[in-house]
Amino acid sequence: GFTCGIVGLPNVGKSTIFNALTKAGAASANYPFCTIDPNVGVVSVPDPRLNTIAAMINPQRIVPTTMEFVDIAGLVKGASQGEGLGNQFLSHIRAVDAIAHVVRCFEDENITHVSGGIDPARDMEIINTELILSDMQSLERRMERLTKMLKGPQAKEVTRELALVKRLHEHLNEGKMGFEFEVADDEQPMLAGFQLMTTKPLLYVCNVSEDDILDPDKNPFVQMVRKRAAQENAGVVILSGKIEAEISELGEEEAREFLQDIGLSESGLNALIREGYQLLGLITYFTAGEKEVRAWTVPRNTKAPQAAAVIHTDIERGFIRAEVTSFADAVTCGNVKKAAEQGKMRLEGKDYEVLDGDIIYFRFNV
Ligand code: GDP
């Protein structure tokens, strides 16, 4: 599965948001949820198309696709130098696919801010600096290792990698994030192998007060976050931890009414899940049988056999062809069967790249 780590300074609302996420998942019957460990929650990716397809078939089961969120505490100023929980958080962050950085944009006299007053620009700087410093340390260790290998049998590759490591180290040393670093296509695999934190897709989550949620851009703190995020090409999601916590206590129907009453079209957590999914470059395809209508997640540009492998590796191994109907055609024709009768079902081979919204039936040899 794909994992999004929630980071941020203490008292910005990380746990509140994480708990709301996991509780919201637990509350709605159709959305299976489980807790792997207190800090890891599996949440369903909300997708109205799933219910539309289900309504065509009336299956026994409807199964949404999921994403994992991890509450990563312990990131404080100086963490890369061993402050607070020190480097413990690093291994957690290294393991996630994307980072959601919660930034406090709400004022509340009763809740102290670790660095004094509210200042998102400073908070973003503190966290990013810790991530950058940690990445620099790991590059320095790599440099040492590579330098020792310079006279070895793979001198040519080692020299190339060392040059990249040094260039990247200089880039980070200027206070820039790894994802702002430009590499040639053939350097991309090397960079991925470094497993840095600042090369991961980053999303800023503004935690605003409930009074600001309808018109968040009036809040100067939100403007600050947007400005910095735009420079970095990072995503921004705005939510109110307090409101999300309230919503998470409600059932699906009640939650919808509550949102309507305050004038919101969807919960902030839905937006967070959706954006996280976007950020990771993920798409959804569907399988639709009488037993089960189900959504599956794959990275964009995944070929049909590899997309089938998320269901079962046997399908990838014995892959014959994919029978593909687009969601739009299924809706226009009424269902998948009628779409096939009207010539809208395509037979695709092993080089077909699965598209978002494809409804697929895989043929394979057992
Ligand atoms: P963490 O340390 O980042 O995990 O922060 P918590 O989620 O524990 O929140 C710290 C405090 O801020 C708690 O007392 C929360 O109830 C409070 N808090 C979280 N989100 C909001 C919010 O949107 N508005 C207000 N006023 N308080 C919040």
Automatic annotation (TrEMBL):
InterPro entries reported for this sequence: ATPase_YchF/OLA1, Beta-grasp_dom_sf, G_OBG, GTP-bd, P-loop_NTPase, TGS, TGS-like, TGS-like_dom_sf
Organism: Desulfurispirillum indicum (strain ATCC BAA-1389 / DSM 22839 / S5)
Keyword Methyltransferase: no
Domain of life: Bacteria
Lineage: Bacteria, Pseudomonadati, Chrysiogenota, Chrysiogenia, Chrysiogenales
A family per Pfam: MMR_HSR1
GO CC terms in record: cytoplasm
GO MF terms, alphabetically ordered: ATP binding; ATP hydrolysis activity; GTP binding; metal ion binding; ribosomal large subunit binding
Name of this chain's protein: Ribosome-binding ATPase YchF
